[in-house]
Amino acid sequence: MTLISNAKKWARTIKRDVHAVWFAARDLRTPWFAKALALVVAAYAVSPIDLIPDFVPVLGYLDDLVIVPLGILLVVRIIPPDVMEEHREAAAKSTEWPASRLAAGVVVAMWGAGIALLVRLFI
Fold first, then answer.
1. How many domains does the chain have?
2. How far is CA 95 from CA 7, 20, 24, 37, 90, in A?
3. CB 18 within 8 Å of CB 73
4. Which domain holds residue 59?
5. Running DSSP on this structure, what letter comes out for residue 78?
6. What are the alphabetically sorted keywords of the record (predicted)?
7. pLDDT digits (tens, 9 = 90+) for 21-63
């Protein structure tokens, strides 16, 4: 396999796992700490707003390439394997992508707080 096909396969796996983690976070068999982390990671991954906007050179894609996959890997390790496998299968069959307005609101609030802090520091 070429590097590009490996990267595409890896990206599809991460995308499926984001969706599966979203499902697992709502499952009663998932421990509360895994649910909390899963909701944060999945909400950030599906949020239309990034912590670092994509138009920022290099750093803009860093969160998509590093933060999200590392968060997913951590969450997948703490969710019971049978629960994760069940939700991976459901995610692979699903045609609808989850969206989170709450996550978008949290990211916007974080940006607002950061800008307010910078304004306060420079005034």
1. 1
2. 22, 13, 17, 24, 10
3. no
4. 3-122
5. H
6. Membrane, Transmembrane, Transmembrane helix
7. 888 888 899 999 988 887 777 777 766 667 777 777 777 777 7
